[in-house]
Design brief:
4 helices; Beta-Lactamase; single chain; globular; 6-stranded antiparallel sheet
Length: 172
Amino acid sequence: MSFQFDLDSSSKTALYGSLAEALRALVLAEQDWLANLANASALLFHGLPHLNWAGFYLLKDNVLVLGPFQGKLACTRIRMGKGVCGTAAQNRTTMVVPDVNAFDGHIACDSDSRSELVVPLVVNGDLFGVLDLDSPILKRFDAEDAKHVEILVGILAGALAAANVNCRYTEK
């Protein structure tokens, strides 16, 4: 099945509304959680302006491990509490970082990244991972972006819950 989405970029609110509609259509058409995360990262990477990375880090054995993403090669593992992703995951709070170079402990996976938005992905009360968005533009993300991306992550969390994804898994 092929998807074509027309995203309304007349305003930030309209763009995020279009992305939410497209994401709902994607997750309704597919039950596999990995496929949904892969398509979500592609949708965001190509749908949001000024990104150089969009993807997921998934919690495995109390470490964030690289999941589906779009962009340059990335760090493979991030410890809880480390960097923006690990801090957002540990605290289960959305983090908007206007200048990653000013963030104490920032992990520079891509030296082109200047700002970052990270939203925890919580399914049925359990941390599943985080959505990480990076931009080469300083101050690319703001509170409005955070609010809308939290809605998108909520759509994914609902799809993962409906698919009965086990959030407590370990590597073999």
